[in-house]
Amino acid sequence: MPDTPQQNGVAERCNCTLMEMVRCMLGNSTLSVLLWGEALKVAAYILNHMSSKFVMKTPYELLTGKRPTLKHSRVWGCKAEVRPYNPEIKELDPKTISSYFIGYSVGSRRCRFYCPNHTTRTIESDRAIYFKDDSGGDVAMQPRTVEF
């Protein structure tokens, strides 16, 4: 029946789980509540890459046939220095932009970043350095292997 959420318990529990995740993500970051949609996308992304106790495979694995990995995951709202692609950059212009991680790009390995002090507020890039805390302390970079 329309307007009776009591009859759709599974969807309501899923919505509550998503909104609780969004509330925690916004509470642990210094970002505005206006970015709740981006936080919701990341929460759904995380849930789609996790298995449940009823189905041993994840929704991502059922859809693509590949096992998911969360090695590339980052803390939502963490500070980052992003180097966007700009072929018109001059020699003395700054090469990085201070921003905050807000999600993953659809269809590529890029991440989305929120830049409050930039003309374009959101940037997609795969070249970034992530900071563990907002004070700009320890830098957490992905480990790279070098083959000789």
Description:
This protein has 148 residues and is α+β, with helices and mostly antiparallel strands. Helix content is 26%, strand content 18%. It has 3 helices and 6 strands, in the order H-H-H-E-E-E-E-E-E. The protein has a 6-stranded antiparallel beta sheet. Strand 2 (97-104) and strand 3 form a beta hairpin. It is globular, with a radius of gyration of 18 Å. Residues 134-148 have low confidence and may be disordered.
Cross-sheet strand order for the largest sheet: 4-3-2-1-5-6
Portion of residues within helices: 25-40%
Residue stretches low in confidence (pLDDT < 50, at least 5 long) are: 134-148
Structural class based on helices, strands and sheet pairing: alpha+beta
The overall pLDDT, averaged over residues, is 82
Strand-residue proportion: 15-25%
Topology pattern, helix = H, strand = E: HHHEEEEEE
**What coarse outline follows from CA principal-axis ratios?**
globular
Total domain modules: 1
